[in-house]
């Protein structure tokens, strides 16, 4: 296992290098000049040229890329051309907010999806199964920004409840943090629940047809023993797979939800960088997101070996 993890970590290097080249190239092909945006429409060409020189934007692209890459090797993501702040501390600060939101959303989504998915599989073709399948289909079909907007409108217009604007960490004030993250977590949790529910139902339906499940029933085991003692673990691989992919995407920053609820997470930070043509912010943010996504996938592969001891690396 140790050698496998080391190989996967070493394999991160070419992946991140390719992503860095791709992101750097695409960003510099986008119309718009950061210096012109920062100085405004009334800036003189001389002032724009001076600012571009101070930010290193007048150098050839290959020189700019190598300079940025050299900083990354040393753990330096550079500074924002818009604010002058170091990028890595800002990324870590924003990521901590996105992490809290993601964990809260995952807790809500899984708490709904896994029990309902199991119930739907056990009572296949019943009225309960039909209702659960329709609910899952609606959860997948309705975009999260529509769910979030509806929640905001209903709770504010009809119940007069407005969530706090300032974000507070769970470690500082759990009650205040719960108010801040509740609506965005529900919005994201509904989308999570829909996908996990469908996968849970499908995996359980397949597992419940296996011979060892028939043997467990024939031994006179209770439904709780059959479902949670035999079927759950053997159905977990596809469930963990889709759940891991969802966590990876959410940790990368749910841009729409963070923007809708004014959550200063990683997704909003990168989006602001795109609006402001802040190349270092976008490059560093996307590279960090890629790193997180690959590490989450590595963690899922390791969890596979715990779920099924037959899996060896």
From TrEMBL:
Broad class of where this protein is predominantly found: membrane
Subcellular location: Cell membrane
Membrane topology category: Multi-pass membrane protein
GO BP term (any one): transmembrane transport
TM ranges: 9-30, 97-122, 134-161, 181-200, 239-261, 281-307
CDD domains, sorted: TM_PBP2 (cd06261)
Domain ABC transmembrane type-1: 95-304
Pfam families in the cross-refs: BPD_transp_1, BPD_transp_1_N
InterPro entries: BPD_transp_1_N, MetI-like, MetI-like_sf
Keywords, in A-Z order: Cell membrane, Membrane, Transmembrane, Transmembrane helix, Transport
Record's GO cellular component terms: plasma membrane
PROSITE patterns recorded: ABC_TM1
Family affiliation: Belongs to the binding-protein-dependent transport system permease family.
Protein name: Glutathione ABC transporter permease GsiC
Taxonomic lineage from the root: Bacteria, Bacillati, Bacillota, Bacilli, Bacillales
Gene assigned in the entry: gsiC
């Amino acid at each position: 296992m140790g050698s496998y993890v080391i190989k996967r970590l070493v394999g991160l290097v070419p992946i991140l290098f390719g992503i860095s080249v791709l992101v750097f190239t695409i960003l510099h092909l986008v119309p718009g000049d950061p210096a012109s945006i920062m100085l405004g429409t009334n800036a003189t060409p001389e002032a724009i040229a001076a600012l571009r020189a101070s930010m290193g934007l007048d150098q050839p692209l290959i020189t700019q890329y190598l300079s940025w890459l050299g900083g990354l090797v040393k753990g330096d993501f550079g500074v924002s051309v818009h604010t002058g702040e170091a990028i890595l501390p800002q990324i870590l600060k924003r990521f901590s907010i996105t992490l809290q939101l993601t964990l809260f959303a995952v807790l809500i989504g899984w708490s709904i999806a896994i029990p309902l998915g199991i119930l739907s599989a056990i009572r296949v073709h019943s009225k309960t199964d039909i209702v659960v399948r329709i609910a899952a289909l609606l959860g997948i079909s309705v975009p999260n920004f529509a769910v979030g907007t509806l929640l905001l409108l209903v709770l504010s217009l009809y119940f007069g409840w407005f969530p706090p604007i300032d974000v507070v960490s769970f470690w500082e004030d759990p009650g205040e943090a719960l108010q801040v993250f509740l609506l965005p977590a529900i919005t994201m949790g509904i989308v999570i629940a829909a996908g996990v529910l469908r996968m849970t139902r499908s995996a359980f339906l397949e597992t419940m047809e296996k011979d060892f499940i028939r043997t467990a029933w024939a031994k006179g085991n209770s439904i709780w023993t059959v479902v949670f003692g035999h079927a759950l673990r053997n159905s977990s691989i596809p469930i963990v797979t889709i759940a891991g992919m969802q966590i990876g995407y959410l940790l990368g920053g749910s841009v729409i939800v963070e923007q809708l609820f004014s959550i200063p997470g990683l997704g909003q930070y990168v989006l602001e960088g795109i609006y402001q043509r802040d190349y270092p912010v976008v490059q560093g943010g996307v590279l960090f997101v890629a790193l997180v996504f690959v590490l989450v996938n590595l963690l899922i592969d390791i969890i596979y070996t715990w779920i099924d001891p037959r899996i060896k690396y």
